[in-house]
Amino acid sequence: MMGKRRRRSSSSYATSSSSYSTTSDAKTLFAIMLAALSNRQSQGTLVIQKALNYLLHSLLSKSPNSILRSQKTLQTPLISLLPLLLNSRCSEIACSGLEIVGAASLFSIEMNEQIALDDEIVKGLITALASSRRSVSMAACNALLDLFTTSVGRCKLLEFSAIDNLIFCILQVPKSSTSSVSLVAEEHDGKTFFRIGFMEDEYIILLLHAVIILINECTLEQLGKIPREHTKNLLTYLTKLWAQVHKHIAIGAAQESERFYYLSNIRTNYLAESLFRLSMEGTCTPSSKLQDVTKSIFHKNFESFIVNHWEKSPLLVKNLSNASLHDNAFSSFSQFLRSKGTVSSFLAYLLENLSSGLPINSDELDIISFLKEAREDIGCSLIYQQDIRVVKTLDSMHEIHFFHEFDAPYSLNAHDILRCQEAYNDGYTFALRGMEFRFKGIAAVSEGLSNLFGQPSTGVNMYLTPPNSQGLARHRDDHCVLVCQIRGVKRWKIFPNPCPQLPRLYENVDYLVDLDSENGDEMIDGYKEFLLGEGDILYIPRGFPHEACTIMDDDERNGNAEFSLHLTLAIEIEPPFEWEGFVHVALHLWGHNCKLSSDHLSHDLVDVAVHLMHIAVKLIGDVDPTCRKACLIGAVPFPLATDNFLQTSQRSTFNHLLSMINSDSNFDNVFSTLEVAITKNEDLFGIFRWVHHLDPKMTSMVMKDLFQFTVQQKDKVEAAFLEVKSKFCNEVIFDDTVHHYSLLLGKYRSMRKQYINGMLALSCI
Fold first, then answer.
1. Residue 230: what are its φ and ψ, rounded to 5°?
2. Quick one: fold of 1-160?
3. CATH class for domain 290-355+376-573+751-762?
4. Strands (E), 35-130
């Protein structure tokens, strides 16, 4: 049986309503039904049923003689009767009334919205949904799905908590203990989607379809209003269903016999989005492992690490216990690896049970907005280059990809996964990104490390390298890395940073040095070599070229497994959380207060001067190494004794930057930079557009307007710039900035937490 909702054709209604002529109008129909409703005899019920059949025939008919063909809405008298019909004790009348609601919802947009905006009809529809009469509840579910076709309909159903009744109904319906699913592929706008076929009763699938549509329409506030117990129980059901669906995604869709399956209109990405949304608050995810991270990585000597090595020099932290990782922060992942026995079993299980980690803009703070943009791709299989790379290097410099035929992002299929064993045997390394949203234990470690360094999140990648091989070529990273050796041994070479500037996140890390050039070896001469065993940690500052391999002598292996598996914890310093970012926050807050309190500078002059000061800070940040360093003001250090050290250090750094801004900021340099940017049509404010997250209501001055204002009143603007610079550097309050900076960091962390929790729900590990 196919998954189209069943509705009798208009011809069937024409037969049962032949006693009404085509000249009948809505007023006559209303009068007949009103009189019949007053008659409690069976004859009255029969008259109502005939009248409803006729009305339904008119809604479905394409005949020009239909009483509704020339109308876009139902007349008010008929609308007023619908709530009574929906609540009728007679199942046939209630079902017919519900079918009329559904047909009217599909008749026209205007009629759909007319139905949706009638509170009594919507309430009656939701009440009918919870009816103990199966036929009525199913008819109500069909009507809901028809009303969903407009945003007004969906919003009104959410307003009256239809989602609660739907979840209640789903949880009450007995489910098959041996239920299974299948997928059927369909093309739409050049993309392939999968519809889910069920070996379940049609009723529960209609309920499921309706609840998925509403969940995927919810705001965060509406999701939060769903009773927690409902959310928990529905999540349990959806998680089991997703595990079955995901297996079929991995092996590909196959057309199953319609005799056994109900082919629904639920796509796999619809189901994945609902699971993601219900999991965002992460009530079941583990808490941050701050103490475990500190103990495992820094042996409680965080202050020494910050003073002597952070963003300065590499550091090897040996596994003091010289034992396995059973007491380590990564113990759960290590145990999972060992439980799979062989490398091939581990690799196959991993690739078959993971979903693609959807890319997200670093400044995106609205998870619902992100989901709306990414909803077509949620829950898809791993994408080559985006999620995974299969690569090897033969000469330290040039990488070879196993799947070299993939020019564009490509979703791995079952055949590709089978080929991965061949790749491993041929010396290829598997690099899998986003482990922090694939394993709950790793997610907790990632969160702990983020808190320790005062950053929104920490990315975690996995590298599985066969013996006598090198995966990635020698390279520099735009982020600091902690290499955590989980299994086997690996030899690392770390070269001196060839550039005095720390590379910034997302910028070309090799723009000042060519590692492939003839004199590249001379530029990075004097490397340090480290041999990592199980449980060892290696810190590599951003910008330091490095490479790693499993090529070593037998005595160096020391009985370890020949292959190597390590995790890299990437501490990415995003623009708002560099020291330059902290100064932009301070300037924004000070400028806002200055505009409110200035007694002799006009509002426009202060606004222009503050915008020019933001450019001045950017110019200093481009050349001063301190501005590129990580701001640790948001750090939650352990042990607490470190707190005083960090506070003193951070305050001192801020005062140093203010002194530099006061002495080195030059109006002429700022003006010429603005002039060149206008000529080249560049946006100088683009890289710190995130400042708007401090105040969503703030308006940003367009660069052309800023330039024209400055040109027209250059002398006044220059004087205002000098005054604003002096006052800012002398009046800004560090503690006030810390407070608002922490609020900004909290917004970023909240968004990342929601994303990670949602993605963890889609992991079938």
1. -60, -45
2. Leucine-rich Repeat Variant (1.25.10)
3. mainly beta
4. none
